[in-house]
Amino acid sequence: MRIAMTVLGERISPVFDVSQHFVLVDVEEGREISRRAETVAVAEPLVKLDRLSEWAVSAVICGAISRPLAEMLIASGVRVIPFVAGDAEDVLAAYLRGELPGPSFVMPGCRCARGRRLRGRGMRRAAGCSVRDER
Questions:
Q1: DSSP per-residue string spanning the chain
Q2: Which partner from 10, 63, 64, 71 sits 20 to 30 angstroms from 49, CA to CA?
């Protein structure tokens, strides 16, 4: 499994739509086996989606993301874990422990009910957020 985290410096980038820097982490049996940094020089959303597909990403951890981009990722089979904030290393560690999404890393001001999830039609949706993410 390959996870892509949008980053700005050492933290999760606040907005997926304009972020250009990614950390790709390969995970096997719940442990990191490799990582690399990638940059998408063009901020064009469809180029970014193409790159994620080329990199064979199965999950994206990011800050805010527009509904159309989130839905395109989900439609292509990528799990989207949106509205995440914090130090990228801490976020990755929480993900590997199975604690993401969770209340410790919800973006400030997000009305996601501090990480609670609602179920419906096989999809999971953050309460109060406009983005669905498939589990």
A1: -EEEEEEETTEE-SBGGG--EEEEEEEETTEEEEEEEEE-S---HHHHHHHHHHTT--EEE-SB--HHHHHHHHHTT-EEE-SB-SBHHHHHHHHHTT--S-GGGBPTT--SGGG-EEEETTEEEETT-S-EE--
A2: 10
Each residue's pLDDT tens digit, 54-95: 999 999 999 999 999 999 999 999 999 999 999 999 999 999
Query: pLDDT tens-digit profile of 39-53?
Result: 998 778 888 999 999
Domain definitions of the chain by residue range? 2-109
The second-level CATH assignment, the architecture, of 2-109 is 2-Layer Sandwich (3.30)
Number of other residues whose CB lies within 10 A of the CB of residue 34? 10
In angstroms, the Cα distances linking 87 to 2, 11, 38, 103, 125 are 19, 4, 18, 14, 24
Question: Would you say 65 and 84 are in contact if contact means Cβ atoms under 8 Å apart?
Answer: no
Beta bridge pairs of residue 26: 2, 34
